[in-house]
């Protein structure tokens, strides 16, 4: 684990704000990146389903981590 940069924090905060205001537009590629990221985490008895998201811009800029 490493700390997020100030820019990564800003990017995800802006994404969250856009999502809350209902103006965020996602793409099929973005959804696929989310699925790939969360596929690394296996559900457990304590956490059967993951309902959170990872920052879209972070995933777009770090695709190599998902393959």
Q: Which stretches are poorly predicted, pLDDT < 50 over at least 5 residues?
A: none
Radius of gyration: 13 Å
User: How much helical structure, as a percent, in the residues?
Assistant: 40-55%
Beta content comes to under 5%
Number of helices: 3
The backbone outline, from C-alpha atoms, is: globular
**How far is the N terminus from the C terminus?**
18 Å
Mean pLDDT: 94
Structural class: mainly alpha
Number of strands: 0
> What does the main sheet amount to?
none
Please provide the ordered H/E string of secondary-structure elements.
HHH
Description:
This protein is mainly alpha-helical and 67 residues long. The chain has helices at 6-21, 28-38, 56-61. The relative contact order is 0.18. The model has no long low-confidence stretch (mean pLDDT 94). The radius of gyration is 13 Å and the shape is globular. It starts with 5 loop residues before the first helix and ends in a 6-residue tail after the last helix.
Labels describing this entry:
single chain, 67 residues, mainly alpha, 3 helices, 49% helix, globular
Task: Please render the helix and strand layout as text.
Layout: H1 6-21, H2 28-38, H3 56-61
């Amino acid at each position: 684990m490493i700390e997020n940069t100030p820019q990564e924090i800003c990017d995800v905060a802006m994404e969250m704000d856009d999502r809350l205001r209902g103006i965020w537009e996602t793409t099929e590629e973005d959804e696929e990146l989310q699925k790939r990221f969360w596929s690394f985490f296996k559900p457990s008895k304590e956490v059967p389903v993951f309902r959170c998201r990872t920052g879209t811009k972070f995933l777009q800029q770090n695709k190599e981590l998902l393959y």
